[in-house]
Amino acid sequence: MRKRSIIWLAVIVAIFSVVVYFGMTGFQIGIYKMDPLYKQVSLGLDLTGGGYAVYQADPSEVNEPDFQSKLNTTMGVLRKRLDDKGYTEATVVLQGTDRIRVEIPTKEEDTADVIKAIFTPAVLEIKDINGNTRITGDMVESAAAMYKSDTNEPIVQLKLNSEGAEIFGEISAEAYAKQGSTLDIVIDGVTVSSPVVKDGPIYGGTAIISGGGSGFTAEQAQNLAVQIQSGALPLTLNEIENRSISASLGEDALNQSLLAGLIGIAALFIFMIVYYRLPGLMADIALGVYIFIIVFLLAAIPSIQLTLPGIAGIILGVGMAVDANVIIFERFKEELATGKTLRASLNSGFHKAMSTIIDSNITTIIAAAVIAIFGVGTVMGFGITLIISILTSMFTALVITRALLRLAISLNIKNLKLYTIRKSAADNAVKGGE
């Protein structure tokens, strides 16, 4: 039993060490290269800078009572386009009575392209073999960027409504009947694709835009899908200002914040070891796993951008994880003081603590979900980050910490002084086995 536990411990430590090492340093295998995880985390406007644009709406197009409603709708469309592109931390605010200001966290050289993509609706036309426009953008139910299964080429897949599906079936049948004829797909007056229908008429309402001879990049496909999906803006907007901006925090302030966080976490690690001893050490290891998982998720989910509110959500998650461990260890020590064996005390302590931990975390998740659903910009980002942090903290506290403690007990570590500082713990707690 002990030998097997030692082997399992060695395997777990080795795997985790390798994952953390390559996650923090990156690696390259042939043509595949992965950057370090921390470099893949998208930073918000307050940490990385970006750009902003100010647009003025033209009130002459609508009646005065409807202008404010149209302006709010326009802001909502812009907000959706930004969210669809992954810029959840961007801000869209009303400036004055007829201007919209958009701030986008991105690289300076990318700002103009992003702003152009969200403000310019794509005019879609699909023409038949005679060059007549038969399908327009209002017949599109959805547009999504994806990769072609056989070539991994970025494409845009369109789902047409019933009218568009019927027309597309007719014009594809015409093109198939005349071998070599093409169906031109035109975006903003430019033919981006002229596919030949080779395998028979296409029914079902699904069309694909491939980007022509040179093809799309992944970014171009995503931009096009967002433009087609969102449609035209309710108001005409005239650009009056467009500038790049630096990070509002600055590099020095960010480094100081990270240093303060590291000092706080180090102090927390020391406290857990001093007060809870071996269980505290296991909790520290679990917290290390928590931090790594959070960094991995931030890097893996492009729609999440890290800002100061997001960092606050992560820190709150650390507090929830520590709180869960404290509840578990206190129940564990109470069971140990009654004379139960280490394994029985561990099982009973976790069982008694679990309902309290789950109830408290669920209430916080509900609040965070409301923030994520109804909030916008940095508020929504805080809610999403908080949900991820809480779920991860529950996993590390209820699964990782427990597994590590069970492993320690399996290694025949039975000295009560390593588990508790309570003098009332009876010596017979370890008599007769684990």
Q: What is the approximate shape? A: elongated
Largest sheet: 4 strands, antiparallel
Helix content, binned percent: 55-70%
Specify the CATH architecture of the largest domain: Up-down Bundle
Number of helices: 11
Low-confidence stretches: 424-434
Helix-strand pattern: HEEHEHEHEEHEEEEHEEEHEHEHHH
Overall structural domain count: 3
CATH superfamily of the largest domain: Multidrug efflux transporter AcrB transmembrane domain
**CATH class category name of the largest domain:** Mainly Alpha
Number of strands: 15
Strand residues, percent: 15-25%
Rg over C-alpha atoms, rounded to the nearest angstrom: 29 Å
Question: Which fold name is given in CATH as the topology of the largest domain?
Answer: Multidrug efflux transporter AcrB transmembrane fold
Strands of the biggest beta sheet: in what spatial order? 5-6-4-14
Distance between the ends: 12 Å
Question: Strand pairing plus helix content: what structural class?
Answer: alpha+beta
Give the overall average pLDDT. 78
